[in-house]
Amino acid sequence: MEYIGKELLKDPDADLTELLAREFEINFIRARDIARKVSLDDFVKNYNTLENLVIESIAKEIVKNGSFLDYKNSFLDEYFNLVRRAINKPNETKPSNVFYSLESLKKYLNNPNNGAHLDISKLNLSRNKLFSSDDEQAKFYLDSLIKSSYVLVSVNEHWSKSKDSEKGPRSFHILKKIAFLLKTAFADIGLERPEYSINNNTITLEIGEETRKNLQKIREELKSKQNHSVSKK
């Protein structure tokens, strides 16, 4: 990162304060406090190390929203070591907030759910029809979320409570129900809260990539469990 700033003679910390406030949108008071503890040269050196590990946009986000500015000496060394370990985990998409702090990195690296399998033993299927093997609409909604990252419903669409009833949720309320079931399932399993957004105009629910991958893992584990049960009979 190159920084060309005007000379500010009134305050020896002003260059870094201005840089943090302008380029990283750091609150002025916090920027000034950081500048009194870290020199501009040290910040630039540390930031360049971070930027070489992750892309520039994520590096800026980490500085803005994370605890990176608070780390010095051994804590900073530990932070960089954990970042390297996280980015070297194969075949996994890492949300940017994983890199926000030592705590978030440790949680990510120590979380068994980051592996290929999820423990679905605590998933309460009796209260979560989204994963029902007997509900064709549920299968369609789940399949759409996993394949396309969204569900689109029509104005007059019902998600029936039973085969003979149309008293279940309708239209926009179907999306609210799906969102609730997603949150319930992820909470049961111990996953982070699912990322989703609902568009009222198009009657669409869209999920984030990590949420989509976790849904796919849940379905795969459920199928594996069902196949295992069948093979035992």
How far is the N terminus from the C terminus? 63 Å
Count of individual beta strands: 3
Note the total helix count: 9
Order of helices and strands: HHHHHHHEHEEH
Estimated radius of gyration: 24 Å
How much strand content do the residues show? under 5%
Oligomer: single chain
Described by the principal axes of the CA atoms, the overall outline is elongated
Named CATH architecture of the largest domain: Orthogonal Bundle
What is the highest CATH level, the class of the largest domain? Answer: Mainly Alpha
Report mean pLDDT, rounded to a whole number. 84
Polypeptide structure, described:
The protein has 233 residues and is mainly alpha-helical. The protein folds into 2 domains: 14-110, no CATH class; 125-232, Arc Repressor Mutant, subunit A (Orthogonal Bundle), CATH 1.10.10. The protein is 52% helix and 5% strand. It contains 9 helices and 3 strands. It has helices at residues 14-23, 28-35, 40-53, 56-65, 73-87, 102-110, 136-148, 172-189, 209-232, and strands at residues 150-152, 196-199, 204-207. Strands 1-3-2 form a 3-stranded antiparallel sheet. β2 (196-199) and β3 (204-207) form a beta hairpin. The protein is elongated.
